[in-house]
Amino acid sequence: MKALLLFCPLLFGVTGCTQDALCSNDVQQVARDPGSDRYAATLVRNCGATTDYATVVRVGRASEAQSAVKEVFVADTDHGAATRGAQGAIWTSVVWTAPGKLSIAYAKDARVYRQKDHAKGATISFLKSGPMAAPQVD
């Protein structure tokens, strides 16, 4: 039993103690608030073959540590029902419409796990939508 208790911390040290250690996070976009040092980062979280890719939007401040960043939106394709964007994520558009006002448009059929309307002093609005495309030029 003692050997097992000594082996477990070693095992956790090699494999990681949290889910984040087993997942990759690839940044797709960073939008900067024109009125402050706030930013919104859109990333794709991949936790392996048995789970769908998650699209995550995080809001933070350039003057703060990464540990202070807040996740304000998390969604996935709901088993392929939502339109996929780059790298397996759902389609999103994340823009600062004015200082302190963030707008997140996302695939209308996405399964949303988290949606917060305030973070780091910013107000956040959400819009379910289809992918937007540039108009055709004749």
From TrEMBL:
<protein>
    <recommendedName>
        <fullName>Lipoprotein</fullName>
    </recommendedName>
</protein>
